[in-house]
């Protein structure tokens, strides 16, 4: 683990920095999954985190890591989802202004939610790429500080604090199941878990549709993939062709990456709801989905599963809970 961009010491420092500003979420044993898998299965209920996802950890650590001058200039990101909510909340909590750029196609309910969290919302263009152009302009012309959703050392270190909490709750954990998209969560959690418990396996889970990190790991360098709609919408998007942090960390630290179908993700959400009594979004249910799918093969236990978020459209959740798939 030498020479990786984020170290265990930096994750421990992040944990001290964000303590009291984010929730230390519960870790509970799942009786249903333990029985089914034949090894203890614990669930890290990170979807109970303030703003509904783990992204608050990385955003809070990034904002707190800024100099007072940088913080005063304000932070900016292009995000319609969990990172936007997290950055809006984290900035407001520290008395800084967050500007979140989104395209005109973003539904009004998402826009108003981010406004409600205290951010300036800037609606521009008709794609996420055009929103990012506006972010770059605000950085270049107005001196705002960009906080990206995953490819940034302070963000990865913040997400890694989740790994420290898992090892503290389950010291003999043998396998950790982590949702994977841009890889900020997986990189941070793997660095923390393997730093404290070197023999624990860390497995990334993502959807078959548009798995950019998996395609990049297979290619040996960051590649672009076509974006397709998925139940796990928080796992969409690329890893960035100029990726600096998460690609090399995922390559060095992940033991495996498993892809899941839409039906399997739906089954994961359904299990979370019916058996665990938890409302979890598609991206947050991929760990349970992997356990139910049998795709993990022989499983080393105890197992820890991260439920990463709960920001799902409740109409969609109801359809899935009642036995429907994606659309
Ligand atoms: C962002 C997100 C992920 C993926 O995290 P990365 O750091 O991009 O890999 C997983 N689950 C939820 C709920 C998310 O919001």
From TrEMBL:
Keywords: Lyase, Pyridoxal phosphate. Its EC number is 4.3.1.19. It is an enzyme of class 4 (lyase). Residues 22-309 form the Tryptophan synthase beta chain-like PALP domain. GO terms for biological process: isoleucine biosynthetic process; L-serine catabolic process; L-threonine catabolic process. One of its GO terms (molecular function) is pyridoxal phosphate binding. Its cofactor is pyridoxal 5'-phosphate. InterPro entries: Ectoine_EutB (IPR014333), Ser/Thr_Dehydratase (IPR050147), Ser/Thr_deHydtase_PyrdxlP-BS (IPR000634), TrpB-like_PALP (IPR001926), TrpB-like_PALP_sf (IPR036052). NCBIfam families: ectoine_eutB, PRK07476.1. Belongs to the serine/threonine dehydratase family. This is Threonine dehydratase.
